[in-house]
Design brief:
five-stranded mixed sheet; 16 strands; three-stranded mixed sheet; about 400 residues; 3 domains
Length: about 400
């Protein structure tokens, strides 16, 4: 569609291009369509940052249409439940895209034979069977993550922020999870479930009865031995034997990263996929750092003391937020807490309240700072005595 200068803001006549047309013209640096066994095609598109304006994608240059990354469901050449900008970047980790979602688009194309139909005004797409709920992009998140091509995985890794070691904190959270006996939710068999389940012996099952010894030669009865599905011959590590895994802690250190995950004014966001994004620009970090710097202002190495104070403030907030997430996950064991209640406990607002309580972490931070910047009191008194004798 040709758009003349009097119909658009650019100085020259431009053409409005559809997404498929833009793909064929090479507007995106990378694109791949991956088809699953049931006919669903997942389109992965990578639009790198624009060199002249890092806040935009490359296809923004000279284009009439928006260059924002998107995620949506396509049915008969129409988009449904389209998400863009923050609505997409917040949900992207569920699709296996924890980093760089502002440059990556995912379009889930359903076959024409899919058991869905549009509503009368074509605003929503509904399933034909069951309760006829609306079709949502999140329904396909696991499929999108599983089908990601290797080049996309490499790009996601390259766009990850510089990681600060949180192994000690994650180990501590794992120990807490183990003590609370928190286990992952086991898969349940449903008649109309999306995955095919059979009673045959396989990975994750053991036989509890020998069919040859049973009357009538009935088949052995299998039972779950491990809910983690592994390749043939693989040995399950202790961490995978049904235990809930400690969250993967991902610190966000720039304003851009914080805004991408919609964490401005909030301390952290937890995803069911196991990532815990922590806003290191949250005010509680600066408040605790300032207090520690004031208390140890007499240290000889001021710069080193400030670095230790910053690290102590950051690590303590990560630990507070992580422990809050762990205790929220532990509420799954409480029958009085349903999934919705657990979800509320894991919301950014709830985790922010835990982050705000930096006073509870001060004593531990003081001990850590004191071992480095405050001389042992006994040694100080002894040195003073020697000086008096001299």
């Amino acid at each position: 569609m040709k758009m003349t200068t009097d119909t658009q803001r650019l100085a020259q006549n431009r053409f409005f291009e559809t997404i498929s047309r833009r793909i064929s013209l090479g507007a995106f640096q990378k694109h791949e369509a991956v088809q699953s066994e049931d006919g669903i095609v997942v389109h992965y598109l990578y639009d790198p940052p624009y060199e002249k304006s890092g806040g935009n994608n490359k296809s923004f240059s000279g284009a009439l249409q928006t260059a924002a990354s998107t995620c949506g469901v396509i049915y008969k050449d129409e988009f449904y439940d389209l998400k863009s900008s923050k609505a997409w970047t917040i949900n992207a980790p569920l699709f296996g895209i924890p980093f760089g979602a502002r440059h990556i688009s995912v379009h889930i194309e359903l076959p024409d034979s899919a058991s869905v139909r549009p509503e009368g005004y074509r605003q929503f797409l509904r399933y034909v069977e069951g309760e006829q709920e609306q079709v949502a992009t999140n329904h396909f998140s696991e499929r999108v993550a599983a089908l990601r091509p290797q080049w996309l995985i490499d790009i996601i890794r390259s766009l990850a922020p510089d990681a600060r070691s949180s192994d000690d904190i994650r180990d501590e959270l794992q120990k807490l999870l183990d003590e609370l006996r928190v286990r992952r939710t086991a898969p349940k068999v449903e008649v109309d479930g999306p995955e095919l389940a059979t009673p045959e012996i396989g990975v994750g099952f053991i036989s509890t009865r020998d069919g040859s010894r049973s009357s009538g030669g009935s088949k052995p009865r299998p039972t779950h031995s491990n809910i983690s599905f592994a390749p043939t011959g693989a040995k399950a590590a202790a961490l995978w034997e049904g235990k809930e895994r400690a969250p993967e802690i991902i610190p966000l250190t720039t304003q851009e990263e914080v805004e991408e995950k919609n964490l401005k004014g909030r301390a952290a966001r937890y995803y069911p996929t196991g990532e815990l994004f922590v806003n290191m620009l949250y005010p509680a970090v600066e408040e605790m750092r300032t207090k520690l710097v004031d208390e140890y202002a007499s240290a000889q190495d001021i710069e080193s003391m400030r670095e230790h104070a910053q690290q102590a403030a950051e690590q303590s907030m990560v630990l507070r937020v992580g422990r809050a997430a762990v205790y929220a996950l532990a509420k799954q064991l409480n029958h009085e807490w349903d999934n919705e209640a657990v979800g509320f406990a894991l919301r950014p607002e709830s985790l922010s309240l835990a982050a705000d309580d930096y006073q509870s972490s001060l004593q531990s931070a003081r001990r850590s700072m004191g071992r480095v910047f405050r001389p042992n009191r006994g040694e100080t008194e002894e040195e003073q005595a020697v000086e008096l004798v001299a």
